[in-house]
Design goal:
- The protein is an all-alpha fold.
- It contains 22 helices and two strands.
- It has a domain at 62-213.
- The protein has helices at 2-27, 29-36, 39-60, 63-69, 74-98, 100-107, 115-139, 143-167, 173-189, 191-194, 203-213, 216-228, 230-237, 240-250, 254-274, 280-310, 331-353, 358-382, 384-406, 416-436, 441-460, 466-479; strands spanning 313-314, 317-318.
- A two-stranded antiparallel sheet has the order 1-2.
- Helix 3 (39-60) packs across helix 14 (240-250).
- 46% of the residues are buried.
């Protein structure tokens, strides 16, 4: 078991280094934007990229997942998947480009920002061209190439944003120019993956891919509704400035999101390849336990110190502009929501192994319904805090429902007793650190003590098994 977990950890680390490095570069744009864009302008940026994230699901419609599931027949699956995406992408892009003022007005960003629709269409087109080559790299276990291309694209994006906004003063549209150019770089670097693309399309392979992928489309839309629809809803129920403040603080949850993303990148190939082994269910259960333990510790660390980090001053300038500090209280809620999303990702394994992807539909639609209803109910009285709690409730519902559906297809003996003890230990540490810590240096000491208390509780409360303590002791001896 530990050998398999080591393999998962190794690929998670490589994917994670690329994802963390690239996303951290991108994260640097958030404090940068708070100093060069007023909250209303940042609200427009947040809303447009929320729409792009939502439309990415429509453009991709689960074809990357279908390709990975049919990777055993790669020679037929690769050209078929790419051809399906090429045809639908041209149609969708034309629909966006022909009526930009209509889409801009209907979205709430204002008809005067119609040019942003054209930028969005270009970004969506280029990102869709890369989705199958990136999936191919994952299945061929080429994480370093995957990492290099992703990092180069986002590094260019960051550099162009700084150039356009800081030095050239080009304004709001330059944010989208930077994204368009960086997406083009990724597509260019992936051309070698397309060199072996056959011009002959196998129709049976295309049908098999579509039959797997299309049930994922409404599920993907439901999942993305949970992730991004709060910004457009807030745009209609509040104002652009509120969306900007919410987005800036929501993005402070990036560190938990990165952990979930890097885990997901390695997790899907991991469980697909091992699903036939007799020891697989026990391994999958242990993965959830370790993921939750690590995630709870990270939630404590980030919740305790992210506000202090946001207020840090460098050369007389705050990391986050003070105009955005009013939303710092949502960060622990957002971090908890991302952690629950990671639990949901763990529970996806039984459904995908059984090829019962249709089951994902009901779960994600339920999560989307909770998200939409929660946002409309909670934003008017509670503002951005209502939106954050709606996201948390959505991921909780999705995790519970996905577990219930998955156990009908593939039994995994999840260690819920240990998970409960871990959550209780985290709660014991969180209360004094979040609610009772004073301001200043004394508060930092209290938070640090509470953070250190979590692994101590895990060690001495019986949460860790004897063999796990032995492995941990061995690792500590190697390190120190």
């Amino acid at each position: 078991m530990f050998k398999d977990l080591k393999a998962l950890g190794k690929e998670s680390l490589i994917y994670g280094l690329s994802t963390v490095g690239a996303r951290l570069l991108n994260f640097l744009l958030m404090p940068f934007y708070t100093h060069y864009l007023v909250p209303a302008e940042y609200g427009v940026v947040a809303a447009v990229f929320s729409y792009i994230a939502f439309l990415n699901i429509v453009y991709h419609y689960g074809m990357d997942q279908a390709y990975m599931r049919h990777y055993a027949d790669r020679e037929k699956a690769f050209p078929a998947a790419f051809a399906c995406l090429a045809g639908t992408t041209l149609l969708l892009t034309a629909a966006l480009c022909l009526f930009p003022a209509f889409w801009a007005g209907a979205s709430g960003i204002g008809a005067e920002n119609y040019r942003l629709v054209w930028f969005s269409a270009g970004i969506l087109l280029l990102d869709t061209l890369t989705i199958i080559p990136f999936a191919d790299l994952r299945m061929r276990h080429r994480p370093l190439r995957f990492a290099g291309i992703r990092t180069a694209s986002i590094a260019l994006n960051v550099g162009l944003n700084v150039l356009f906004l800081r030095f050239l003063g080009l304004g709001l549209e330059s944010v989208f120019w930077a994204n368009l150019i960086s997406s083009a770089l990724a597509a260019l670097l992936l051309l070698p993956e397309l060199s072996a693309l056959s011009l002959k399309i196998d129709r049976s392979a295309a049908r098999a891919l579509l039959s797997f992928a299309l049930p994922l489309l409404p599920a993907g839309l439901g999942s993305m509704t949970v992730q991004v629809l709060d910004r457009p809803i807030m745009l209609h129920l509040a104002d652009k400035a509120s969306v900007g403040v919410y987005q800036a603080n929501y993005r402070l949850g990036i560190f938990m999101m990165l952990v979930v993303t890097m885990f997901d990148q390695a997790w899907r190939p991991f469980f697909i390849e091992r699903s036939h082994r007799p020891e697989a269910p026990a391994v999958f259960a242990r993965v959830l336990t370790y993921f939750t333990l690590g995630g709870l510790w990270l939630w404590l660390a980030l919740s305790f110190f992210i506000g202090d980090l946001a207020r840090l001053r460098f050369s007389g300038v705050n990391l986050i502009h003070p105009d955005y500090w009013g939303g710092l209280g949502i960060v622990p809620i957002v971090l908890a929501a991302y952690l629950l999303n990671g639990v949901y990702v763990n529970f996806l394994a039984p459904v995908i192994i059984a090829k019962r992807t249709g089951a994902i539909l009901g779960v994600t639609l339920a999560g989307a319904a909770v998200s939409v209803a929660g946002n409309f109910a909670l934003i008017p009285p509670f503002g951005m805090y209502g939106a954050a709690w709606a996201v948390l409730a959505s991921y909780l519902v999705m995790a519970v429902l996905m577990y219930r559906r998955g156990r009908a297809f593939y039994q995994v003996p999840y260690e819920f007793g240990r998970l409960g003890w871990a959550a209780a230990a985290a709660a014991v540490c969180a209360v004094p650190g979040l609610l009772l810590a004073p301001a200043g240096a004394a508060g930092l000491l209290v938070k640090a003590a509470c953070l250190c208390a979590f692994p101590v509780l895990a060690w001495y409360s019986g949460l860790l098994l004897p063999e796990e303590k032995a492995k941990a002791s061995e690792l500590l001896r190697r390190v120190f």
